[in-house]
Amino acid sequence: MILLRIFLAISFITLLLFIFVTFYNGNCTIKALSRQYDSLCVEEGNVADSLQRVEEPDPTNSSVTDSGAANTTMSPDPLGTQLTLVAPMDKHNFTALPQWKFDDIYRLDPQFKPSECMVSLRNSSNPVYKEKFIPNIQLFLQSDHVNMSEWNRLYHFNNPFGYMGFNHTAIKAAVDTIPKLASTQLLQVPTRAKDGCIRCAVVGTCGILNGSRLGKEIDSSDYVFRVNAAIIAGHEEDVGKRTSVYVHTAHSLIQSLMLHKKRGFKQIPTDKDIKYVLIPEGLRDYNFLESLMKNRKIPSGAYRGQTPRNYYSGHFNESSWNVLPCSYKCINNVRVYGFSTADYRKYPNYYYDTKHTKLVFFANHDYRLEMKTWKEFHDDKFIWMYLGKSE
Hints:
Radius of gyration: 21 Å
Number of helices: 9
CATH architecture of the domain at 2-29 and 191-385: Alpha-Beta Complex
Structural class: alpha/beta
Strand content: 5-15%
CATH class of the domain at 2-29 and 191-385: Alpha Beta
Order of helices and strands: HEEEHHHEHEHEHEHEHE
Helix content: 10-25%
Oligomer: single chain
Distance between the termini: 30 Å
Mean pLDDT: 76
């Protein structure tokens, strides 16, 4: 249960920062959400002041390419001409957060198209978000994203930001199974959206939704995102019926089905044209991904003997990877429902709890900082968050 809560938080944080999906005319698709980036070079010193500088090996000796130019872009090494793997590293050998000179180098989307929506984050007047937000960042992992040069750069970062401590052969074997996208444009703007804006609802499972009667409001969104044990039957009045995108890790998918089966979560959402987004937050996700694409049982490691495709109830179609997506990249108007707020004691842990249950805080999950951060996002109009009936 502790691990489930931790990965629920990981799913939520990643979802809010990267609320993206690929649409096409056909069956569902699953994408591996990634932080693999094109080379965007920035001046050293743009890293947050809170980072502690520690002595580390010279990055120039770690087979990492750096253009040396500020605020410029360059193409990644497409052929992987750097033939030597960077020396092994272990996160446990670091006493403080290292600062590499390539900390702020990112893979960019070469097919990026600007949004026409004037209220999107990329057009925000807030100087903090405007500086930090990179609208054309590459989100979805593809088979050509793990050449030697890119591996060596990302090996300096702990997962989910990179591959530190991972085995190159194992990761590459998994990533190589992902077909290359014909297009990376995401989220089609609805024809009724004259302003060019995409509006979505991101629905969590916290008890604040119990008795909220927000189902119709949620379903009126252009797209509805759900995570974890997204139990709908019997709770439609509070949480709605639609699911456009289901975001998960291998762990959250399997554990949610296991732990919440008695509550009615017997399969993940399988709406018509639903899209699935897999977040590779650990090695087990890459093992899951490889076996999913190869339609086999997981041969070793976590969930050994499990067949990933069984968890999608027949809604996974490998051919969907090769269908042209026709959509925009970023949702412009994000409304968040069902996540913890400062008055969490008033509500049960989950919206489907039949009696009041307590939200348990753990040392490795700073719920209070999380609540504070999302409230700041709400106040700054980065997102709109449901704060209860008294908001």
